[in-house]
TrEMBL record:
Subcellular location: Cell membrane
TM annotation in the entry: 21-41, 282-303, 328-356, 376-404, 425-444, 669-697, 724-743, 755-776
Domain MacB-like periplasmic core: from-to ranges: 20-243, 432-626
Start and end residues of each ABC3 transporter permease C-terminal domain: 287-404, 675-787
The entry's keywords: Cell membrane, Membrane, Transmembrane, Transmembrane helix
Gene Ontology CC annotation, any one: plasma membrane
Database matches in InterPro entries: ABC3_permease_C, MacB_PCD, Macrolide_Exporter_MacB
Entry keyword Oxidoreductase: no
PANTHER family xref list: ABC-TYPE MACROLIDE FAMILY EXPORT SYSTEM PERMEASE COMPONENT 2, MEMBRANE COMPONENT OF TRANSPORTER-RELATED
Membrane topology type: Multi-pass membrane protein
Xref: Pfam families: FtsX, MacB_PCD
Record carries keyword Lipid metabolism: no
Stated name of the protein: Duplicated orphan permease
Length: 795
């Protein structure tokens, strides 16, 4: 019986090849998108789930409560040892400090090799908490001693080729010689650890006094603390206990810390604490994938129900010969199943073919091997069953209920076979989904353009940012600046702690204004730079003057936000007032006020800042060049750099590119929603094209009569198109409030955001209308041009 049903189903599908191909193509695109979304979501949900005790691993984080709450995936340097000594909640506690772009130098028989790499300074307990096994499979961590390191297999291959790396040495930042004591197996791609060089924490004392200390005076986002908790711990109770640390270790500060305990599984999914992706984003991706599948199923349902009148005779004959309703239903379900299986196979093929491009777009390493895992097989089977049921059940029920008398007399109307109402409702849903996706694409694109193209309050075009060696002498730095500035393609040079915005170097500190008895509630951001800083970045002085560089710092410049925060009525009012910064380590008077500039991305409000010379913390050189002769300028800079620092690599980045990178997540989100919008529209067009074929056939006689009575071609084309245009308008009315709500919620993530203008909704509807008209115009014009004699002969 089952074999016979599939044989008949196959014959029926072959009989209507065109519509079968439309259904298969639409469903295959739906399957392909759903599979890609599944792989994407599964990848992010599986971060760091491979560790032996992943359910007991936690990260400590900090909420900083001042005039507003800031979130840091870090704790003060003294936290780890205090937690070890004060409580017995954890079996192991370990500190982990990640550093970017450290210079690695090797001197071997093949000569000198240099490259930059991320480096992690870790305590030995780190490898007891996490399951990163050595090459021989053991879990030892022999890096307790200073100047020892572990590297991955991939890094060992890069550094030493086929030579045994154990006991080999290399230098970090041309400062310390490090001995390799062990090799780790290559790290999986679904872990928070991005480094491939792990150096003993004791070595950090040679590089960073603050990070390796036991102070509670501040935070650095590079320092993380993890714990392997004992079984069955009450995390809420632990967090309550940690509130006592505020009074115990930080009693005299306005910056109140609330220490949080995060499960390892949540660290990647919480964007507040430097998570790789937000849970809301995964939900959005999942919903978009579901919408694409729904659009494909709607296509199938619409085309199938439209064909019901043409299959009515077949149904009538079967019923007269004794077929029951359930037999007819399962016959149609067999056809749906065959189409779904074929579409699934093609969809998997599509997924495999575009996976490399998808990985490039989202900076992932999703593997085809995932397609052979048990979870994927279960997902595919569930998806196949769901699509078959969703797409086939309604058309199957409609066919099964057709009265045999009406069917044999060819008197089955569209209402008898499901009617226009249901089909129109489904088309409206289809159009509404496409319009929502288009509105989303327009709003996201508009916000990104607003963020990237807006006046940030400083110059970013033509600014070249160069990292300078950590142990450079001030005389060397000044000499380098003078030699670089001699080229006519160089407009200005400044040494600084970081650019005004889009900098990895952010440092907030406490401040006492005008000898007030209490520190201010807010944190003051440090923007250290030499006397050229304000001019090089085109910062606007609205009051006072620039500072003078002296042997000791006694002058500084603040921004307009600082003026408002301290309650001054004008920038002039605060000129000459004293500031005590960072617990009194810097005392100076205010000599100038600059206009506000965006020191962070548009997600955050502008912070109060101060600018002052501080050569001891300069980490970058900013060079303003003429873009018309950029090659000449860069060549000159590299030449002067190499002459002064032959032992260091010359590396640079354009500031405008750094600004654009701040919105990398949004750019990828825009790419995804744009691609999926295009796919949804394409699938919808396939369905509309299939429907218009039936519509034209049904209207053939009417078109012939109207043409005989003098109807113009324009009028006849409008007759064919008007129903679809009405549905698009209705879909636009439904989609507008839905899209506005979701995009309004998305824009709330930005402190500075664009408006959702009325024309966005009109444009989205117009786009759908134009594409739909282009899809159906050929068949509409063809019907209008048909000889009316031939049309009138059509039954």
């Amino acid at each position: 019986m089952l074999k016979n049903q599939f044989k008949i189903a196959w014959r029926s599908l072959r009989k209507r090849k065109g519509f079968t191909l439309i259904n298969i193509l639409g469903l295959s695109l739906g399957f392909g998108c759903s599979i890609l979304v599944f792989l994407f979501v599964q990848h992010h949900l599986r971060f760091d789930n491979f560790h032996n005790n992943s359910d007991r691993i936690y990260r400590f984080a900090t909420e900083e409560h001042r005039d507003f709450i800031e979130y840091e995936a870090a704790v003060p340097p003294g936290f780890a040892n205090a937690f070890r000594q004060d409580y017995d909640y954890a079996e192991k506690v370990a500190k982990y400090v990640d550093r970017r772009n450290y210079l690695i130098t090797l001197d071997g028989y093949m000569g000198r090799k240099q490259f930059t790499s991320e480096v992690a300074f870790v305590e030995p307990e780190f490898f007891d908490i996490f399951n990163f096994p050595l090459v021989d499979g053991s879990n030892g961590a022999p890096i307790a001693e200073p100047n020892t390191a572990m590297i991955t297999e991939e890094m060992a291959k890069l550094m030493f080729g086929d030579t045994n790396p154990i006991n080999q040495t290399f230098e970090i930042e041309n400062n310390q010689t490090i001995t390799i004591t062990a090799v780790l197996q290559d790290l999986p791609n679904n872990t928070f650890v991005g480094e491939q060089i792990f150096v003993s924490f004791e070595t950090l004392k040679s590089y960073d006094e603050f990070m390796s200390s036991e102070t509670w005076g501040g935070l650095n986002s590079s320092l993380h603390c993890f714990a392997l908790m004992r079984p069955n711990q009450d995390i809420a109770q632990i967090e309550n206990q940690l509130q006592g640390y505020v009074q115990k270790y930080r009693p005299n500060t306005k910056n109140v810390h609330h220490y949080k305990v995060q499960p390892l599984a949540q660290t990647h999914l919480d964007s507040r604490y430097e998570g790789g992706i937000d849970t809301k984003t995964l939900w959005i991706f999942s919903l978009v994938g579901l919408f694409i599948l729904i659009v494909a199923c709607i296509n199938f349902i619409n085309i199938s129900t439209a064909q019901s009148t043409y299959r009515s005779k077949e149904v009538g004959v079967r019923k007269v010969l004794g077929s029951f309703k359930n037999q007819l239903f399962w016959q149609f379900m067999a056809e749906t199943f065959i189409v779904s299986v074929l579409a699934l196979v093609i969809g998997i093929g599509m997924c495999v073919s575009i996976l490399p491009s998808f990985n490039t777009l989202f900076d992932l390493e999703l593997s085809i091997t995932t397609l052979f895992q048990l979870k994927f097989a279960g997902f595919v089977i569930l998806l196949l069953g769901l699509v078959t049921l969703l797409a086939g059940s309604y058309p199957g029920l409609l066919l099964a209920r057709i009265a045999p008398v009406l069917a044999l007399k060819r008197k089955v109307s569209q209402n008898d076979a499901g009617g226009y109402v249901t089909r129109k409702a489904l088309v409206v849903v289809q159009f509404a989904i496409s319009i929502v996706l288009i509105i989303g694409s327009i709003v996201v694109s508009k916000q990104l353009k607003y963020a990237i193209d807006s006046d940030l309050g400083f110059t970013k075009d033509g600014m070249v940012m160069i990292e300078i060696p950590e142990y450079i002498e001030l005389t060397q730095l000044n000499g380098l600046k003078e030699r670089i500035a001699q080229n006519s393609s160089v407009a200005n040079v400044t040494a600084c702690f970081g650019s005004p915005g889009a900098s990895n170097n952010n440092w907030g500190t406490g401040v006492v204004y005008n000898n007030r008895p209490e520190p201010e509630e807010f944190s003051l951001q440090v923007k250290a730079g030499d006397k050229n800083y304000i001019e090089a970045f085109d910062l606007e002085l609205v009051a006072g003057r620039n500072f003078y560089e002296k042997d000791s710092v006694d002058e500084l410049v603040v921004n307009e936000t600082f003026v408002r925060k301290v309650g001054a009525s004008s920038p002039q009012e605060i000129l000459g007032k004293p500031l005590s910064i960072n617990g009194g380590s810097l005392n100076a008077k205010i000599v100038g006020v600059v206009a506000d500039f965006h020191d962070r991305d548009f997600h955050s409000s502008i912070n109060p800042i101060f600018i002052a010379p501080a050569p001891q913390i300069y980490s970058e050189l900013a060079v303003k060049i003429n873009l018309a002769s950029s090659d000449e300028a860069l060549s000159h800079i590299e030449k002067e750099w190499s002459a002064l620092f032959p032992d260091y690599l010359f590396d640079y980045a354009f500031l405008d590119e750094n600004v654009a990178e701040l919105y990398e997540t949004e750019q990828r989100f825009l790419s995804l929603i744009g691609v999926f919008s295009g796919i949804a529209i394409f699938i919808g067009c396939l369905g509309i094209y299939g429907l218009i074929l039936f519509f034209v056939v049904q209207k053939t006689k009417e078109i012939g009569i109207r043409k005989v009575l003098g109807g113009s071609i324009q009028h006849l084309v409008a007759l064919v198109m008007q129903d679809f245009l009405k549905l698009i308008v209705i879909a636009g009315i439904i989609a507008t409030p839905i899209a506005w709500y979701f995009m309004h919620r998305w824009l709330e993530n930005f402190e500075y955001r664009t408006a959702i203008n009325w024309w966005v909704f009109v444009l989205a509807v117009a786009i759908i209308m134009t594409i739909t008209l282009a899809t159906i115009s050929y068949q509409a014009i063809k019907a209008a041009l048909t000889n009316p004699v031939k049309s009138l002969r059509t039954e």
